[in-house]
Every structure is written in structure tokens, then in C-alpha cells.
Input
Amino acid sequence: MCKEMLLNEFNLEKLDCFFRFSDRGFVILTVNEYHIMQKITGFISEKAGVNYYNVTRENFSSIINGVKSGTKTDLKLVYNFFLEDGDSIHVLEKFNLGRDLILERCKYCIFIVPLYIELYIQEKLPNLYSYCGFRERYLRKYNSSFSYIFPEDMYLKTKVMQKNLKENIYDAKDNIFESLDTFLHIKISEDIFEKLENDTNKFLDYIKLSDTQYDGMLYYKIQLNFAKVATAQKKFKKAIQVYQTLLKDENIIRNISIFIETKLGMADNYLYIGDYNKSYVLYSDILSDICTDLFDFLEDITIKEYKIQIYSRIALCQIKLGKIDEVKRIILQVMESINILEADGNREFFHIYYNFFIIYLEIYPEESAENSGMLELLGQNSRNEVQNAMYLTVKAWYEGVIKGDIYNSIQNASTALEIKRNLYIENDVRIAESHYVNALLRFFAGNDEEAYYCCMKSCNILKNINTYINKMIKNYELLEEIRNYTI
Output
């Protein structure tokens, strides 16, 4: 967006009318971004003479002295509340106590604050908030580009784990069981995958000719494990083909866990390739299956666990299909079930909370109780470095990009990036994700050179990964906007 167009999306007529038809008063203008703040201060300067007070450089005493020494026709503009929470709140509380004096000594007192400061004034300083006769928000909505955790175990893989697995690759190459287990967690070449497929088929032929064909359902477990490897290697059509073959064999119903895993696997792969209608139908079929007499032997808790996993996947289908009301209903339903299970024991639901938070960001790309509540749950359930880094990244987005708490969010985003660099290889998409968040936050703070550098780092990673086109587009859009302020 070019500088000249930056304010076109905001209606400044209300602010203009306030200056033309009001005698005096307090004003709150809510702005999260440095460049928008600059444009608004420029607009105000055209209307009247202004005394500027930057709270990152001046304390309350110097501001109040300026108010006392000025004339009653002055316009005082107080801005740059991008401080640590305690500092910003301390300044605001003093303004609240001195509001009568300030209004007596100047015609207008305008506060330009980020959203989280406005919300604090509204909740904690209602007298100051009610003093403000004009309040307006100038906030842009940004769509996040976070990736869902899916499948839920893959996000926990770190570079140390990958290194250890790769060291075992040569030992595993002649053992079909070890190969299937190892290749589920590391990226392999086309040649190795083809060899794995051939070895798997040979082993399946061997089982067919032996007396162990149905011993422990080995024949089906091998196929199921190969399908999982195909999914991990992003060969989704191959995986679907294997799952379809399995489901044609009526014998797998003898092992309920394999039957459910097969159906889930096929539905998951359709979700991967973007066939959301087909994956939704399959997930719904699984829900119908586990409610039949065949599954009577399962404990109620086990059925609840299955339903949580399936409904959380259905929510991903529905958000992609644009069925917002259905998604909201499903999330509430899943959360109720999780609350029941959590009362019975310690279970891992981080991936579900994370996905639901991202879904909420799509539904509510602004401050909301739903976003705040899910983020709090996410923080409470972050139990390792991987989860903590992911939590800090989305927290930095929500509290920085959406709520405007730039100072603390930059700290969180930087911490998350440092953790990820220790956990992952440098060209991991999760590091690119952190670079993008860091770039946007620094752009919000007016640190354009740092923002440009962070954005370029993200672009350099993503240009080598062709499966994240949307992330790449967002990066280039931000890069172009930053260029408008650095050229």
C-alpha cells in the first residue's frame, strides 16, 4: 500500500467534524501502526497548531508543565504509548488524576493509543474514558498465515530428532519394519521411497504365502504404516490409494483400531489435498461407525477421545468451506468434551487448542473474547520448547498485530525465533513464520529497516518451499509496503 493511499481506508470525516463543531474536549484515537499514527498526526496538524508529547521521550511532569505554560487555545497531542505495560499504565493513571487541570488549560487533549491501551482505559480508568467526547479506531485487519498442526505428532519433530533418525537410515534400509518407522519422521528421496514401496510389496507378498497372514493383522498393519509414510512424504494420492485398497477388504473390521485408523487416514489425506467436502463426509462416516453396535466394547472415555479428534478435524474442513456458524458450534462442543476428559486425567490437547486459536483468528481478525480465551488455554498447555515457541509466536501476533502491544510482542516474537533456531534447521517453515511476525511487528513500530531485513529472511526460506504459496504472497505484500517507506 503506497503512503498516499494509507488513510483512504479510514473515514476521517468524523474527526474533521469534531474539530469544526466542538469547542474543546478529550479525544482517544486508537492506532496500532506507527505509519498510520504519522498520517493522523499530519492530518490534525493541518487543522490547528499542535503541541506534541511523545511519551517514549517525555515523562508526565514535562508534559503537564507544557500544559500549564501553554494557552487555553492549545491542542495537546500525546502519542507513542509503545512502552512496557507498567510504564504506559503509570502515565495514564496520572493523566486520569490531572484530567480537570488539563481540560482547563487547553482546548483539546488528544491521545493516540494502541488498542490494548484503549481497552485498559475503558476497563480500569472509566472516568478518563467518559471524559473523552470523541473516540475513533483506525485499525487495519491482517489475516494471519499460521499453519494448522496436522498431523498432530509431526510438529514435535526437531532437528536433533531428525539427525538421530537420519543416522539410523542405513541400518534401517534392509529392515522393512525399521524403514517404515524411520521414514515416517524424515524426508527421503524419490529413489528411497520407490525402494521402500517395492520392499513393502515384496514383504506383503511373502505374508500372503505364509501362515501369518492374519496373525496380529500384520498384513494390514504393514500397509497402514506404508500409507502413513506416503502421507509424511507428501505423496497423498499414493496414501489414499493404499487406504482405499484396505477398506475394500472386509477382514480389517476384525481389528477396530485398524479400521478406524484406515478411515481416518484416508479422510486426513483428502484434507491435505484440499478436498474438504470428501474429507468431511469421511469424518462424518467415522462418527456414525463408532456409534454402532460394533463399537459397544469401547469405553465411553475412548469414544469421547475419538470424537474429540474427529470433530476437531471436521472444524478444519468447515472453516475451509466457509461454514462459520457450524465451526463455532463444533469448537464449543469439543471444548465441553475436553473439559470432561481433563477431569479424568492428564491428556495432551495443545494441538487442538492451537488449531482452534488459528480458526478463531480467521473468524475474528480482531480483539475478541474467543481469541483471548483460547490463547490463555494455549499458554496453560505449553509443556515443552516446541509448544512454547509456537505459543509465543501466535501470542506475539494477537497481542501485537491485533491489540497493539508492540513492545512486549517484539520481545515474545524474538524469544520464539531464538527457540526455533535452536530446535529446527534454518530453512524450516516455522522459522520463516517467525521472521514474518517479527517483520510485521517492527513495521508497526516504525523500524522499517529491521522489518525489511526480517521479511527478506522469511522470503528467502519460503522461495525454496513450493507448498506455502499463501505465506509467500503475504511476505511479498509486506515487503512491497515496507519498500514504500524505505525508498
